[in-house]
Every structure is written in C-alpha cells, then in structure tokens.
DNA sequence: CATCCGGCCGTAAACGTTTACAGATCGTTG
DNA sequence: CAACGATCTGTAAACGTTTACGGCCGGATG
C-alpha cells in the first residue's frame, strides 16, 4: 500500500483484465457480474485514477491557464472570480500566472503552451500583442483567448478569440457626464502611454473633448503610472499648474484615489470645487469618501466572455475567430454629484 | 507537422536512439558530436518536451494548488501574491481553487490530491479542520500546508505543516490601543461563531476586556457576517441599543466599512465620538475616510510561510510536522487618532 | 597480440491509462 | 447438431518520457 492502487491492482483482485477494469470505470457496456466485481475491488482498494496517465493517453489535461499582469489588481481579481466557476463547472482546473506585465513572462507562458500542460489559455497582455506574441500563439496549437487589443492581421488558422472593451466609449461617457454637470475645465490624469490602455485613453480624451466642443489644452494632461502615489503626484502637479480646473478624469481608480488624497489635503471640496471620475469601477470606488464615480469597463463580463469563448472552442472544435466587445458603463457616485450620495452597497 | 515533434522524431533526424536524445536534452554526459547533432535536430524541429509524459515518468507534476474560500477576499489575494512568485522561482506552477468555504468543496480538493495532479497543496479551510479533512490529508500522501487552526491530535505520519496567526493577540492589541486612547465602552462586531476566526475573536474579546479590567457586557456584542452590509446592520443595531458606545472593534475590515458607513450616516464623528478598528489590514484600510486603524494578521507573511514550508518538504523530503505562527501587529490610522492623519501611502 | 577497462550508445522496460482488434463464450436459428 | 451472430473479454499497442542494463568500440597495458 506504499504506492496507490492502479487498474492493474484492481484487475488482479477482481480476476479480470485491465481492459475490463477500464471499461467498467468508464461506464462502457460490460456484463453485470464483471461490473460488480470490479466496483467492489475498486472500492475496497480505495482506487483513484491517476490524472497524469489519463492526460497522456487522452491528450488533454483538463487544465486552463489565466495569465495577467498582477493578481493584486482588482480588475484581474474580478476576472478570475468569473472565470473560475465557469471552468470548474465545465470540469477544468485553473492555473494562474502573474506576469508582472513583462513581455518576456507573457511570451514564456505562451511558449509554454507547447509543453501541453494546459488545454487552453486566457491572457491579458499589458503592453499589447507583439509580433512575437502572434508567433507564439500560432505555434501553440492550443486555443487562446486574448483580453485586450489584437492586431487585425492575425494569420489564418490561429486558434485565437478576442475579448475587448471600448475604452474610447468609456472615456466619452465620463466626459459627457462631467460636461452635463457643468464642468468645462476637465483635467486628465493618465497612465503610461506605452501601455495599450494608456494610449487608447489618451486618444479618447482628445476625441471626447472635441465632440463636446471643448478645447484641448495640454496643460490639463498629466502622464504617470497606474498607481495611487503616482496619481497623487500627477494631481498635485496639475492643480498647481491649472488651479482653476473643475474636474479630474482619471485613467483608473487607483489614480483617482491619489487625486482624492491631494484634493482633501488641499481642502478642495469634491465634487463642489473639483469633480473626480475614475475608471475600472473596482471595489475601491464604493469605499472612498466621497464615493467615486467610475467608468466600468466590465471586468467581470470580460472574464465571463473569455471563459465562454475558450470553452466553446474546446468543446465544439475549430471555428472562425470571434471577437466579443464589452460595452462600458458609468456608475455615478458621490465624487460627481451634489450633495454626495450615501455610500454604495455591500461589496 | 500536424502533431508536434517528439524525442522519436529528433532521434530519427539525428540518426541516434531516443535514449541519446533524452540524455542530451537532460545534460547527461554524452559525446560532443552526438550533442551537436541532437541539439541541431531539436532546434530545427522546434522541439518542446511534453510535460505530461515527463510527469508520468517522473511521478511529479511541478504543480501546487492553493485552496481558499474566495479569491475575491483581499486576505487571500495577499496570500496568492506572495505564494505565486515563490513557487514560480522554485519551478512550480500554481493552481487556484475557490471553495466558497463549503466543506464539501474543500474535501473535494483534498481527495483530489490522490489523482496526483499536483505535488502539494496549501489550503485554508474556513470552518476548521474536521475529522474528514484529517482523513483526506492522511490518505493524500502528498504534502499539505494548512493555513489556520489544526487539531493537535493529528495522526503520525500525516504530511502536514501548519501556519497560523494569533488572532487572540491581535484582538488584544486592538483593545489595548483603544483603552490607551481612553475608550471604555468598546463594542464588538463579530462574524459567524461557527467559523474558526469568528469563534476565536469572540473568546479573545472577552479575555482582552478582562485583562483591561473592563466588564463584559453582551449588549455590546453583535454577531453577523464578514461583509460590509452585515457590518452596517450590526453597527446600526448596536448603536441604537447602546448609544453611549465610544469604540467599535470589528472582526474584519469589511465589517468596519459598514460601521463607518453607519457612523457617517448618523453624523457621529470618527474617531471623536466613536473610534473604529478593523482586522486584516487589507488594502481597503488606507482608502476609507477616515483611514482605518486595523490589526494586521500578516496575510502576506502567512502566504510566504506556507509556501516556504511546502517547498521545504518537497525539496528535502519527509520530516516532523512544523507549525509557523505569525504575530499580529497593529497599524494605527485615522479612525482612532485625533486629528485624523492624512491618508496612507500607495497600495 | 590478447586482455582489460572506460566511455558511449542502443534496446527495452516502465510510468498508468484507453482502445483497436481478435478471440472466446453464449444463445439462437436453420 | 452445426453454423452463425451478438456480446463480452483479453492481449497488446499506444501516449512521450526516463533510465537500467548490456553491448560495442576505442585505447592502453601486459
């Protein structure tokens, strides 16, 4: 009993061949009597099939990986929360890769697909899909779902689907809202321009201003990182350069937190003096004071869509690549409404 | 090329046996000439070893699972964040199981160990380790680290280590602090008593009061769930029953959020009228206003310790079970100090 | 020149399954 | 009673590795 029982052990004890054991355990038609004997032996031995051997033979692992920049980021947590139960229900286990947003790590995961330790992959590359990403996806020969932008010139036959959000539309929602409540000098605190979201949001900000008939003024724009302290620095810089700013559009909720810190520190009323809007609509938005108006980019929906596309491919075989676009929405809270509403509901 | 190359393909192309190929790829001593031929063939074919076949042969998967109640809970996120890089550095992949705190799911994961799809498991059972858990751990014959309480009568030879925190000491830290700043009517908002943390914190609250020479008054205690809205309900109930309460000890940060909501709604000053302390010291604590004083139970440290113990066992083989205890600490923020400090640093 | 030794290498078995194929067993039918 | 067909079962191969073992070849030694 030092090594667990195998079908061979069962076969001996039940006095049948290993083929019969396998058939019984897999529910293939077998004589009543044989079934009983095998089941009995299996029970007595406490047999559990070895999943590795099964995987080798069946050429499938029943495992799926999810690769993202940082599991500490609430956006990815929201995705995992949706992905996990869907996969579980379909009989798949979930592996997690935190890549720190390093392209090298992302490529490592993609190339790793060739080791066949998973049946499929959901990946959210932080800085976009490069030539090398594409190569690795094609070489993988395992289905991949990319969350984020995907080049439109993907090679034929790449087993890849795509889930994206429309962050342009998201920024527009926010600026429309700020315009509606009477704000005209709307600052913009962005993240790095060499990230996909950063670049998209920068362009969207310009477009949205134009659509509203407001002038684009580069004094109103600060570029930093997607973190709270960076948001605080950016807010401080912008406020001292343009004291008359009456709204701050922030490229994510963490930046918005930093902005709120600075506004409070400087005694400016939110939203009375300055309205603030975040993006991603994370759990944090309902915790701050005032609570934070934020553009939801549908993290949960994106997670769900990605899992759905991957499972579909795994279950129904090859088909044309699909793209699923998640529409953003605006959740209005205290940081843009007077008087501040009472805080949001439960997490 | 429809199916990837295997060592057999390489062997043919290089004109050697599969044994030689394997030896070269594993860096075993081989004649210079053979090495070159094999390497060349492997390169040209773009060979990648099949990890499943390797696992079957080597009887190890290089995978480790982490099972916890809910990946949405910041405490577990903090653990995963520490565990993942440690495992990765040691060459292991990480699987995630969200059990919803259902004992059935936890047992499913433990029993699943017998399928040998992972080399080890870190598990944090929400409602404690039952008789059945113990059985499954023993039967698993794979190393397990339990984060949380573990019965002291574990059977010999169970491959299990233990990481725990001293939540009694944590509660004491908090109450000492509240006492020091002059609070004498300290309410307690707890989670369910049939969870391990809930029960421990209830007992600790009584003890700590006693140590401080304060009377235990059951009117000052509310029991709910570990969520924000439940915390709000509990706070409302307690405040109306005992209007003169001057501090609220909350069994976790989410409950504290709910309490802050209610205090603000009722126009009571924090910490002037009522001081508030949370537990877990999650990221949320530095986001609220005022920022939340909170007892850190060292989630990150516990994650790190768990990964360390598991890796040690995997790398150095059997040894006596170990217990690692993480000391709690108190992070004082605005919800207990006058005047409220400026908000905390970056997340 | 025969012997021995050391270094490489190939054959084959093993890890634990699933499944194609052929053989065995049974009942049914002409 | 022989022949047949339908069921069931066992043998063996396959999935892609790693590795024990023995054979072969070379050079060095007596």
From TrEMBL, chains A, B:
This is LacI family transcriptional regulator. Pfam families: LacI, Peripla_BP_3. SUPFAM superfamilies: lambda repressor-like DNA-binding domains, Periplasmic binding protein-like I. PANTHER family: HTH-TYPE TRANSCRIPTIONAL REGULATOR GALS (PTHR30146:SF109), LACI-RELATED TRANSCRIPTIONAL REPRESSOR (PTHR30146). GO terms for molecular function: DNA-binding transcription factor activity; transcription cis-regulatory region binding. Residues 5-58 form the HTH lacI-type domain. The keyword Transcription applies. The keyword Transcription regulation applies. Keywords: DNA-binding, Transcription, Transcription regulation. Coiled coil: none annotated. InterPro entries: HTH_LacI, LacI/GalR-like_sensor, Lambda_DNA-bd_dom_sf, Peripla_BP_I. CDD domains: HTH_LacI, PBP1_LacI_sugar_binding-like.
């Amino acid at each position: 009993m030092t090594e667990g029982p195998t079908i061979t052990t069962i076969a001996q004890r039940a006095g049948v061949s290993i083929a019969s054991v396998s058939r019984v355990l897999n529910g293939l038609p077998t004589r009543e009597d044989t079934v009983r004997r095998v089941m009995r032996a299996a029970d007595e031995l406490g047999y559990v099939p070895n999943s590795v051997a099964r995987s080798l033979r069946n050429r499938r692992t029943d495992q799926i990986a999810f690769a993202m920049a940082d599991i500490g980021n609430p956006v990815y947590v929201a995705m995992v929360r949706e992905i996990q139960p869907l996969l579980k229900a379909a009989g798949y286990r979930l592996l997690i890769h935190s890549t720190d947003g390093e392209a090298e790590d992302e490529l490592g995961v993609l190339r790793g697909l060739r080791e066949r330790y998973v049946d499929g992959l959901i990946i959210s590359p932080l800085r976009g899909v490069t030539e090398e990403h594409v190569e690795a996806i094609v070489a993988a020969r395992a289905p991949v779902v990319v969350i984020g932008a995907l080049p439109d010139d993907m090679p034929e036959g790449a087993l890849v689907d795509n889930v994206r959000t429309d962050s342009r539309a998201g920024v527009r929602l926010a600026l429309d809202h700020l315009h509606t409540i009477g704000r005209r000098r709307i600052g913009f605190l962005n993240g790095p321009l060499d990230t996909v979201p950063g670049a998209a949001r920068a362009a969207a900000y310009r477009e949205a201003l134009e659509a509203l008939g407001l002038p684009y003024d580069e004094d109103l724009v600060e570029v930093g990182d997607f973190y709270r302290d960076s948001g605080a620095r950016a807010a401080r810089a912008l406020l001292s350069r343009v004291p008359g700013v009456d709204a701050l559009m922030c490229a994510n909720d963490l930046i918005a937190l930093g902005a709120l810190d600075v506004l409070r520190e400087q005694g400016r009323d939110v939203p009375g003096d300055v309205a603030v809007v975040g993006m991603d609509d994370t759990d944090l938005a309902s915790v701050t004071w005032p609570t934070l108006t934020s553009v939801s980019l549908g993290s949960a929906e994106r997670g769900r869509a990605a899992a759905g596309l991957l499972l579909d491919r795994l279950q129904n075989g090859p088909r044309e690549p699909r793209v699923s676009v998640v529409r953003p929405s605006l959740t209005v809270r205290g940081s843009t409404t007077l008087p501040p509403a009472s805080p949001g509901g439960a997490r």
